[in-house]
Amino acid sequence: MPSPAGLNSPSAVNRRRFLKVSFGGSAALVAAPTLVSWLGAADAKAATSPLPFVDDYKTNVLTNLTPETNAVVRVLGGFAQVWKTGSAWNTGTPLRPEILRANMRYCAALTGARTEAQGREAFVYDRQHQSYAMIAGLGTLADLYKAGAKAVTSITSAPDTTPATTISDAVPADAPAGSALGAGSYTSDLGQVARLVDTVRGPYASGNPGKYAFQYPRPWRMNEDSEVVDTGKTDALGYPVYDSKVVVVPQLLRQRGTSATDDGGFPSGHTNAFHLAALAFAYAVPERFQELVTRALELSHTRIMSGMHSTVDVMGGRIMATALAAATLADPANADLKAAARAQALAHFTGKTGTTADTLFAYAHADASDKYADRDANRRAAEPRLTYVLERQGRKEPLTVPKGAEVLLETRQPYLTAEQRREVLRTTALPSGYVLLDGFEQWGRLNLFAAADGYGSFDSDVTVTLDAAKGGFHAADAWRNDIEGDGSLTKRGSGTLTLTGHNRHHGGTVVEEGTLVAGHAAALGQGDVRLTGGTLRAGQPVRVRGTWTQSKGATLELPLRRHHGAALTVSGRVTLGQGSVLSLRLDDRQPARAGDVVPVIDTCALRGQFDTVELNSATLRAVPVYTADGLSVRLLKR
């Protein structure tokens, strides 16, 4: 960084006048790196037959600073569409100035509106070990994790003023013997999980090569090198204070780097670390997968809130972390470690909570005070942080999921094949056209929050098999996305799959074994429904746009609600085979009574009858009343 006196030297002023981008009526320096010559859009396309990232991730070292030699620089190549390197850190050319202006405006608005509490929080997550900060994403399991892993921190609050020196996290003097920073001690009850987190954050996961390659300035440096009014004051480091737009948290003033060349903003190292730790924890504790992803995005946002990083920095950190986590988890050298970490976490948490693999998920989501208890609120917070200031441009392009990316869902959706997990990633990905996210292999387009909720589209026929005997997600899972596409869904195996989205797939739905739960009125899509075995259970009235066919041995479970329409409405014909079963449940909120006639099925034509009609009541029995276009039941006392 230039000395205070040098900021206003004639050469510095001329340099700023030569390379400035207007934002908010002021001018901000737009810098570019010196170490790499980016010629126009020289990203991954400049490399000759580059290896897939997961096969080349160990090239991310400081001796490799070009897209041809460094896999991380290559996957961040979308930034080369925005930014062209110059001959020094503070020279260069903005290729997409509208994005960089929006980037600075966002940072200025966020830091300008920041509350004191938000500033203090940003300080804590700037100074605290990033792996430790991620543990809170475990929610109800967080305290159990900290105790089991002996994970500790010394950074729990922010000082009132600017500290006199740099502050670093450390093991507190009063911590139990064997305690460790970050994810915890390797000799603890959760040592394998701690080791996995540290391995994912290993020697090839640093953001520093990317920083040296791009050297995009941090937002507060752009302020100080801007042609704005000099207030005549100096900051805590002795630098001039201008009428700047991005305001650094006061407690972080002395935590800033002093060498601009060695302290680039893009990509954000803290963001990279947050997401790496999150995805390692999510592999070991998939019961909290979505919440960990949400927390990583939230903690990354504090980097912008603090004034230390900009939106493009944070997006770059997320992109590289997604690719690096996948590469490390897919590396055969780590196969035993990741399996041991998952097994250890499951055994530890079920043992401490008295749960099983089948009930741990419910326990991990049972605390109403959990900060991440509301999935919809998590989604609303997560989605805009995937793109921030970027605006989508260009036509829609299909995504080829990067090699190895499917490993990120390996424990969250263990009942799917690797190819099916790739389809989940593809059909839930962000659309093309976000310039920063469209780099080599397009890792930035992956939306892991959405992917945890299953398919986004059935573009071909999908068969899913869940095995109750294997427990956990093998036994039961829920797909919450709104599923589109022309393909069909076939449910096999003894486990239970729940669909809660407003689904529009046209290929139909087939239940052969186990249980399929319709958790939304439109959960079964717009095609035909066939029950050849197993059970289809509805928790609320359901509508089918096609035909309904139910064979021998198959069971339909529906709710009975007084003063309500049919529990099942079918646009096409209903055909009931001999030996089919109807199981009815009285609705707790509006239970039907003796003497009531309650509609069950409404259709254009009904053929056949149920062999058995069951009712979950010790005092009432259901007598079926068939007509040409439906079925009702009359409730009588037993």
Automatic annotation (TrEMBL):
Residues 193-329 form the Phosphatidic acid phosphatase type 2/haloperoxidase domain. It comes from the Bacteria. The keyword Signal applies. Keywords: Signal. The keyword Transcription regulation does not apply. InterPro entries: Autotrns_rpt, PAP2/HPO, PAP2/HPO_sf, Pectin_lyase_fold/virulence, TAT_signal. This is Phosphoesterase. It comes from Streptomyces griseoruber.
